[in-house]
Amino acid sequence: MFGNTVVFADTIGAATSPDIGMAADLAFEHDMVPALHLHHRGDESRPLSLIRAGLLAGIRQFDSSIGGLGGCPFAEGSGANLATETLVRHLDAWGFETDIDQRGLRAAEQLAFKLRHPPQTALSSDIVTVA
User: Fold this and answer.
1) CA angle (79, 81, 82) in 5-degree steps
2) By mean pLDDT, which of 14-23, 26-35, 76-85 is the weakest?
């Protein structure tokens, strides 16, 4: 009725490798497909180490965000999402195939950068008062 994938989200960046293994085991015990969604606070090495733990535990679905855009509006200080381009680069280096279109990924990354760093215009820095 609800599908067969369960997403384990580390919204505040507190998970450990044993936590990931336990979550994967629990999902597999109940014939569910485990997936991970990980946040970080500026250093992607922690979520990448948890991705690695997930891979070793049999997890093959990982949530990420182009350019690391996002975060969680419900958990203050949740940090950023793991950047898709970082995840794909590491998965490729570790010998996993992702079937991601690299050219499309680069275009999306450029768009995300522009969203994070909009160009400054005269209007954006002026204060306009309407009566």
Assistant:
1) 125
2) 76-85
Mean pLDDT of all residues belonging to the chain: 84
Pairing mode, strands 33-40 and 61-63:
parallel
Q: What pTM was computed for the model?
A: 0.78
pLDDT in tens, 103-117: 898 998 888 888 877
109 is catalytic: no
Name the active-site residue from 12, 22, 69, 72: 72
Which backbone phi and psi does 8 adopt, to 5 degrees? -95, 115
One of 3.40.470.10, 1.20.140.10, 3.20.20.70, 3.30.530.20 is the CATH number of 5-125, namely 3.20.20.70
